[in-house]
Design a protein that fits this description.
mainly alpha; 24 helices; 75% helix
């Protein structure tokens, strides 16, 4: 036997069928259900809520400002260290650190959704906003714990698959929180009554609150992931250092000046989608689309296309690498916004709506799967909740703040100019992806010294 034949065989690439089978593994199925729990609240305090408020006669400028409720997601890094390190009396001993915070946050979301159901925006808009804030903070806390749960449940080379499963559950929830809530509200309406009927929306939001049971049951049936062992802190100052300072110092130490470039990319990668999304539902109402049309096309068919995009993005990331798919998603996401400007010239055109929503959601699914995998690759498992919360918060901070002015922009310049402008916002993203692709992922160092 010669030397060449004695050398080890290079690893063979898996077939597409073998690659896709990973989505049927228990970890992927668990993330599918938890992704549903994470995706349910988002539309109910942002997208679907904007449809409800517009139908109730709330002006677009006010709707735009109310989207700042979503800034709770952008500031979740502020309490992420507590979720990462602080035990909950009773619950943590019973369920473990990650599952106890998941359960508490899910109960908060359920209570907030029930409050939104019972509050009429035409009578007490301020109270509705307060309950929406409860949902947003509960949902953001759930995201912190769930991201850590996901990252700690599998090695880095499997994160793209878990991200795709998470996105699938997330998008299924968005079908239910988008199409489902509109369908329930439409079925509950009294025939011949006024356009906005509070009792119909009340029933719809109560159904959504009950749907959070999917997440509750999954948490109770899941196992707590194995966390990196950290020495106990000797005093309160050492605990604070381990919880608040070290997670951020670790990232800066690993990437040094390149951290600025990476954080810049994270800050604007989804800016086109987020800024445009706030005005999407008011746009549908103003174009004359009915609840059933919006539910069927944008909340069912469109989300199915997002699921397809998430699976494609996850599979392509395994085969081609995350950065290439990240660039593809950035190009497609920005370009798809131009299709909404075109749709604005068509009026009530259901066929056009199907085409635009298909392209936009397919692009969004590809971009999301790759982006989640990219963020996960940057995260040190020793500080998974805090670091991932920082990354996902930075991702939303600028876009959510800018989206608050979207209603005023539309009132001043119209939908066509607005959608074109959001597409142009995506151009700097392409440059940052190209630059970030040259930065190798830095392996985290083991924690040094006592931690909390």
């Amino acid at each position: 036997m010669n030397q060449a034949s004695a050398s080890p065989e290079p690893p063979t690439r898996k077939s597409w069928l073998e690659t896709l089978k990973v989505y049927l593994e228990p970890a992927s199925l668990r993330m599918l259900a938890l992704g549903f729990s994470a995706g349910l609240p988002l539309l109910l305090v942002l997208g679907t809520l904007s449809f409800r408020l517009r139908e109730a006669g709330v002006d677009r400028t006010t709707i735009g400002y109310l989207s700042w409720v979503g800034l709770a997601y952008a500031f979740k890094w502020a309490w992420a260290p507590l979720v990462d390190r602080m035990p909950l009396p009773g619950l943590t001993h019973w369920l473990g650190r990650r599952r106890s915070w998941l359960l508490l946050s899910q109960l908060a979301v359920m209570g907030g959704l029930a409050g939104m159901a019972l509050t009429d925006p035409q009578q007490d808009l301020h109270a509705l906003v307060v309950f929406a804030l409860v949902v947003a903070f509960g949902s953001a806390t759930q995201d912190i714990a769930l991201d850590a749960f996901r990252i700690e449940s599998a090695p880095s080379n499997e994160q793209a698959v878990l991200a795709a499963s998470y996105q699938t559950g997330y998008r299924l929830a968005m079908i239910w929180a988008g199409a489902g809530v509109l369908w329930v509200a439409a079925r509950a309406e009294a025939p011949g009554a006024e356009a906005y009927q509070h009792l119909a929306w009340q029933r719809a939001y109560l159904v959504m609150a009950a749907s959070m049971a999917v997440g509750l049951i999954t948490v109770l049936l899941s196992a707590e992931p194995v966390r990196a062992a950290l020495p106990p802190a000797r005093n309160a100052l050492e605990w604070l250092r381990g919880a608040l300072v070290d997670p951020f110092a670790d990232f800066l130490h690993r990437y040094r000046w390149q951290a600025v470039l990476i954080l810049g990319l994270i800050a604007i990668y989804r800016i086109s989608d987020v800024v445009m999304g706030i005005m999407a539902n008011p746009f549908y109402v103003d174009m004359g689309f009915t609840k059933d049309e919006v539910a069927a096309v944008t909340k069912v068919y469109g989300v199915v296309m997002t699921l397809a995009g998430a699976f494609i993005g996850g599979a392509l990331s395994l085969r081609l690498g995350v950065m290439r798919v990240l660039m593809l998603g950035a190009v497609l996401s920005a370009a798809s916004n131009l299709l909404f400007a075109w749709l604005g010239t068509r009026g009530h055109d259901v066929t056009g709506l199907v085409f635009v929503v298909s392209a936009d959601n397919l692009a969004g699914g590809i971009a999301s799967a790759a982006f989640i995998a990219y963020l996960s690759s940057l995260t040190n498992i020793s500080y998974s909740a805090t670091q991932y919360a920082l990354f996902s918060s930075i991702m939303l901070l600028l876009p959510k703040w800018l989206a608050g002015f979207s209603g005023r922009y539309v009132d001043s310049f119209g939908y066509g100019s607005f959608f074109t402008s959001t597409a142009l916002l995506g151009l700097p993203v392409l440059l940052l992806v190209a630059l970030a692709s040259r930065i190798p992922v830095q392996a985290p160092q083991a924690p040094q010294g006592p931690r909390g």
